[in-house]
Amino acid sequence: MKIKVTTSNDEIRRLVSNAKEKGQIVGLVPTMGALHQGHLSLVQEANKKADFTVASIFVNPTQFDDNSDLENYPRSLDADIHMLEEVNCNAVYVPSSDEVYKDSKPFEFDFNGLNKPMEGEYRAGHFQGVVQVVKRLFEIINPDLACFGLKDFQQYAIIKEMVNQLNIPIDVIGCETIREENGLAMSSRNQLLARKDLQSALLISKTLRLIQQNYRKHSPAELKALAVEPLQKEINLEYLEIADSDRLQPIESWSEAKHARAFIAAKVGEVRLIDNMEIF
Q1: Mean per-residue pLDDT, 23-52
Q2: What is the mean pLDDT of the chain?
Q3: Domain ranges within the chain, ordered by starting residue
Q4: What average pLDDT does this structure show over 15-27?
Q5: What is the CATH number of domain 4-175?
Q6: What string of DSSP letters covers 10-70?
Q7: Strands ordered across the beta sheet of 260-268
Q8: Facing residues of 133 across strands?
């Protein structure tokens, strides 16, 4: 299927409007490009629920707190478009920053504390940039549903909160993390890993799996203590947290949460990686 590629707000709105006039459900998969199978699985999930799927490719400068991270973020537009075509994505929106933010208006949003722990402690202003661009994409494209990967679980939780608070009529769907055969969570940043650092990177998913498999034997604090020491010997650990999946607050007892997840962020060599896994 020939994919429609546009850099224009007016053009993507026209394509979506035409689809909706035919009674079609419109799905959105927001990305920053450098696509991999994880992104493609989001498109495939959107295709199951929507009749017309749009992927956006936009490296949003407002969510980077480190300019070198922004400059080094991998970009591969031609390959991305080809991959999206292979999974029957209908349209791809590839705007400039000026196009995304023209006519945008500031808005107030109460994060309800979801932005404070974990990523919030290490990436100042990151989630303000995320909600700003996602809200803008929702306004421009006006989808009926949008798919987000659960590898960025804190981001997903914040976007759900934004949609609920602002009464945006879009179904936000969380999709499971896609992993390499060795367990490493697929990420655009993986291609920046030096070969020598790959085994160290694998410790992240192995540690999450260890926590998941042993939570009945240990308290959250005991599991964190068991996991942190071997990690710190191999990688630059920023945080390992066991938190309530709804509030994202750390828990001291399993009885504090109906659902719990373990979260890790670390620098492996020069590459910052995040991952998380549901415990129960």
Answers
A1: 97
A2: 95
A3: 4-175, 188-278
A4: 98
A5: 3.40.50.620
A6: HHHHHHHHHHHHTT--EEEEEE-S---HHHHHHHHHHHHH-SEEEEEE---GGG-S-HHHH
A7: 236-244, 260-268, 271-278
A8: none
Overall average pLDDT of the 37-61 stretch: 96
Average pLDDT on 102-114 reads: 90
Please name every residue paired with 266 in a beta bridge, in sequence order, or none if there are none: 237, 273
CB 91 within 8 A of CB 12: yes
* Lowest-pLDDT range of 104-113, 173-182, 251-260: 104-113
Task: Find how far residue 174's CA is from the centre of its chain.
Answer: 9
Among 72, 258, 45, 255, smallest CA distance to 150 is for 45
CA distance 46 to 56: 13
Is residue 39 part of the annotated active site? The answer reads: yes
Identify the CATH assignment for 188-278 out of 3.20.20.70, 3.30.420.40, 3.30.1300.10, 3.40.640.10.
Answer: 3.30.1300.10
Longest dimension (CA), the chain: 58
Give residue 171's pLDDT band: very low, low, confident or very high (50, 70, 90).
very high
Handedness of CA 180, 192, 264, 227 (dihedral sign): positive
pLDDT of 71 above 80: no
What number is the average pLDDT over the span 255-263? Answer: 98
Catalytic residue among 36, 39, 126, 259: 39
208 within 8 A of 225, measured Cβ to Cβ: no
Helix axes 153-165 and 126-141, enclosed angle (nearest 10): 60
